[in-house]
């Protein structure tokens, strides 16, 4: 199980540098058995979410080409319509699973969306296209404990 998580995390970690999608909106795609969702702010600034049937959700935030989140010692929280959701990609507990599920649904309807890093950086993320790109039922995204 840990090898699968590590493999997915490493695969996901290499993708943000080549984040797909249009600047200023959400996009979704599928590659090599992984559902991918991304909110691109500008080159080197994006939120990338990877999901598959084989692994729990992985989220990587990139700010000025520095990565935060899954598989990284640098963490981030999401702030959705003023409510902070701590590390929504850490899903190995009931609280973590609830945070992820809440964030997933809230991102689809958000009026404002930010990521706040453990070292104090804030990235305003786009909301345009979120409801279309992010499936209502979570697609293949799941937590570590429900996986």
Explain this structure to me?
Mean pLDDT is 87; it is low at 1-18. A 5-stranded antiparallel beta sheet has the order 1-2-3-4-5. The termini are close together. It has helices at 2-13, 94-109, 130-133; strands at residues 25-31, 34-42, 45-52, 55-63, 66-69, 76-80, 83-85, 113-117, 122-124. It contains 3 helices and 9 strands; from the N terminus they run αβββββββαββα. The protein has 147 residues and is an alpha+beta fold. Strand 4 and strand 5 (66-69) form a beta hairpin. The chain has one domain (2-133).
Present the secondary structure layout.
Elements: H1 2-13, E1 25-31, E2 34-42, E3 45-52, E4 55-63, E5 66-69, E6 76-80, E7 83-85, H2 94-109, E8 113-117, E9 122-124, H3 130-133
Antiparallel strand pairs: 1-2, 2-3, 3-4, 4-5, 6-7, 6-8, 8-9
Question: Which properties best describe this structure?
Answer:
4-stranded antiparallel β-sheet, 3 helices, alpha+beta, 5-stranded antiparallel β-sheet, 147 residues, disordered N terminus
């Amino acid at each position: 199980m840990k090898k699968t998580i590590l493999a997915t995390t490493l695969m996901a970690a290499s993708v943000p540098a080549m984040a797909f999608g249009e600047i200023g909106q959400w996009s979704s795609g599928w590659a090599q058995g992984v559902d991918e969702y991304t909110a691109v702010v500008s080159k080197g600034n994006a939120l990338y979410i990877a999901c598959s049937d084989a692994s729990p959700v992985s989220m990587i935030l990139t700010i000025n080409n520095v990565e935060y989140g899954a598989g990284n010692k640098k963490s981030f929280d999401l702030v959705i319509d003023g409510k902070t959701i701590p590390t929504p990609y850490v899903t190995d507990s009931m609280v973590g699973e609830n945070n992820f599920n809440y964030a997933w649904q809230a991102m689809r309807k958000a009026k404002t969306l930010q990521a706040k890093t453990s070292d104090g950086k804030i990235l305003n993320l786009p909301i345009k296209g979120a409801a279309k790109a992010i499936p209502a039922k979570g697609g293949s995204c799941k937590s570590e404990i429900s996986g």
